[in-house]
Amino acid sequence: MSAMELLKLVRRRSFLSEVLYIGLNVVFAIAIAVVMLTTGSIAFAIALVLVSKWRVLAVRTRYWLANVQANLVDFIASLSVVFMLYSVVIADMSDTRKLILTGVLTALYIAWLLVLKPRSTRRAMAAQAAVALFFGVSALYTFSFSWPVSVVVIFMWLIGYAVARHVLSAYDEDRLTLLSLIWGLVIAEIGWVAYHWTVGYALPGLPGLYVPQAAIIILCAGFVALKIYDSFFHHQKIRAQDVLLPVLFSVSVIAVLLVFFGSLGTAI
Known about the structure:
Low-confidence stretches: 1-7
Oligomer: single chain
Number of strands: 3
Number of domains: 2
Distance between the termini: 66 Å
Strand content: 5-15%
Helix content: over 70%
Largest sheet: 3 strands, antiparallel
Shape: globular
Order of helices and strands: HHHHHHHHEEHHE
């Protein structure tokens, strides 16, 4: 076989692999939506997500923990989609609207799987963590109103730990585990306070779906923390010009939520 023929074969296999990868992800996302629409069972959809991550454990047992931690953000994002789909299915709306909203959520999930998730730049990993943080907290507070506070705090800690580890791994941070544990504790404390004062904002035309105030506040806090860390990482000190605007923006958003929009939210 000549070098040119070998190169063509490699390219053909690469193209076919890419097509197969895209096709499997699209089918997987659609399958979750179909399962949710036809059965109305969130357990089946969660099981489908867990089964789809079989490669995480398809290694020697000593690598399981590392693989699970590396894939936590994807787990959180995927399970958040499942919970949002379930919110649509059980909502009091017409079947046509349910089908449309399910299609929109499925398209967003496909975008996550094919566009955002595969990227490994620092900005992309920060965006991945932001998506998991926002939607993970939103899904948790939408469904945890009757759960014990200890369970909610544990899940909040897990979300905080996962997103911090995901972002910091892009910086080759030596204290990766320690800083992730600390951020998880911060998020857990915010989660404990939010549990006793949970306010959600209804989305226009989307009954059953709420954006918890806690999700917005925590996202703002995470944005500030990232800018502070990034400034220190690059300059060995926290420069005011790097963090001033992010702090002012985040504080302004939180102040507006608490002062002006606190009374407009709905208890969830």
